[in-house]
Every structure is written in structure tokens, then in C-alpha cells.
Specification:
CATH class: Mainly Beta
Largest sheet: 18 strands, antiparallel, barrel
Strand content: over 45%
Shape: globular
Number of strands: 19
Length: 377
Amino acid sequence: MKKIIFLIILIFSSFSFSQSQIEVNGYLQNMQTVWAPKLTDFWMFSNSITNRFNFTYYPSSNLTFNLGMRNIFDYGEFVSMVPNYNESAIYDDGILNLTTEVTSNKSAILYSNIDRLNLFYSANNFELQIGRQRVNLGINSVWTPNDIFNSSSFLNFDYLEKPGSDAIRIQYHLDYASSIQLITKANKAKQLTFAAIYKFNQWDYDFQTLAGLTEDDYIFGGGWSGDILGAGFTGEATYFNSRNKFNDIFLSSIGTNYTFSNSLFLMCEFLYNSNGIVGKVNSINNLFNLEYSAKNLSPARYSIFTSLQYPITPLFNASSSSNFKSSDGSFFVNPSADISISQDVYILISGQFFLGGNYTEWGEYGQFYYLRIKWNF
């Protein structure tokens, strides 16, 4: 981490700054979490204080330097009782280890994570981005089989920026609606993920196709985004062809969304996993493990997600989402209320209620309750 900080200082020292060339923003938030596990009457209380900085520097009209950093202090019973919490918190899968533990004890940890550190160059129709960056190939909102670089679980609602990858991305725009991208990512084990992507527009739909490889598979996929009678219609699918001939997997997701005249927003997505389990999933580790990826979006064969959002007032937004596993009948419900206290201060009250029988995907967790206050600056 010290080497990385020195590298950042070295990069900055090579530039001359002016105030108009710099943008700084971020937030400070506090989130209280209460977990009521299903298998015990003991409730776990924990707290997380997060400070984020986003720094953008424009040394010229063609060049941009991006730095994003999170400082997180987690403490409470959740930290002390969840197995390997500290190791999971500071785990960094990038070729550069940009996450460091500042201090910790049995019930608390303070750590810092740089999730954006890249240079972006653009000229005419050409773009080049090098460093830790968000590479988002997903089209749908919840399940994104095309997102082989940066898959992130929808359950992690508090990390809006999503993780970054240590990658090189090259893009050339063929015209206003079509482009070619080449992307290479390296992970902690120095394994490469590569993809070539072609995007184009046809019949008022945006399409993309991709082919490449991950550390385990050759991948072929594609997706689309458009509308039918005013309702958004999206979909994506990826075929993972095992490089070691273990098991081929096909995942696809289809989504639709519609905003009614009264501003009620409705969204629905369906996921199919050819390698998914049809019976009881028995996946108690699904919520906490580090194996979430475009290839492992859900252990179930079929999943359905629905979401409703409605602005009760301009300052009070209510929403509710649910995820149903037809394979084992388990599901979770996530009601939320987002309240604007001022232009820059917001309160979120939310819950995640996991329901189902024993040994089902969602039936083992119980309930989570969240209270978050956030100040944007």
C-alpha cells in the first residue's frame, strides 16, 4: 500500500494543478445494522462508518486521472461473530493490493480501499483507460451474465459504486451507435480475463456481442436493450465453455420495466442457470462468500426478481423488491424508505427478510434491519 501511495504522489507531482482542473466529491455515512438470525434468538448489532473521496483531475482536454477511495470503520457483534470477517473485508482480488488494514481487534476493523485508480485518454473516436476501473458490461439491473469483469451482488445495496478491476480498456467508436472494445483484466493470482465486445444499434435496439476468456472458461455472449409498447425490454446471456472440460454453463436473464403516469416504477427480471439446482439449494454461504461472479449469479436453476418504487413526495421515496426461487420456494423481501432531510443529507430505512424452509437458498438467514444517514459533499 505504501508503494501505491508513493506512486500516486509521483503521478501528481508530475502535473501542475489549477482549481478548474480538479473535481473532488464524496460522502460520509453511518449505517446501523441489526441481524436476527433464523437459527438463534441472539440478535447481532453492528455499525459501519464510511467515508468516500472521488478525485478527478483533467491535465488536458484528452486526459483524465481518476482516484476513488473508501475509508471504512466496522465494529460490533456482527464483526466479532461472523467467521473470517476481517479477512473478507480487506480481501482485494486485483493484481495490485489497494486495500489495507489500518487497525483491528476482535470486534472492530478500520481499513482503506482504493477502488478507482486509472488514467483515461480520449481523442476523436478512440478511448484508452488503464488502471483500476469499473468495467460494466451488464445490461440488466440485477443479474448480469455479460458482466464477466465486475459482477456484484444486488444484496450489497450499500456499495453503489461497485468494485473495480485492474484492467486495460480500449474502445473505438465506429459511429454514433456502434463501437468495438478490447478489455483485459488481471487478478491477484495474475490470471487474465479478456473480452472483445461489439456494440451496435438495429431496429431501435442496442445490441452487444462478446467473446473472450476467463481464468476457467472461454466465454461467448450477448445482450440487448430496447422497449416494447413503452416498457423497457432487456436481456443478456453468456455461455461459459470450460477450458478444463469440467462443466459448461449457460446463464441468461431477461428483464422488463415500466414507469406509470403516476410515477410508479415497476421492474421484473428472470434468471436461468443451466447448472443450477432444482431442489433445495442448501446455500447458507451464498450471502457471505467471495465467489459471486457472472458464472455464479445464483445456485438455483430459476430465479425471479421484482421491484416497485414510488415517490410518495419529492423528498420521500418508498420501494420494495423481492427475489423468489422457484427451485425451492424460498424468497426474500426488501422494503425501503429513502428520505431527503436536506439537499445533501439522506436517511435510509430498510430491511431484508429471508423466508423459506430449512436447507433452502434464502430460508436460513433470518432478517436484517438497516438505518443509514448519509451526507454527500
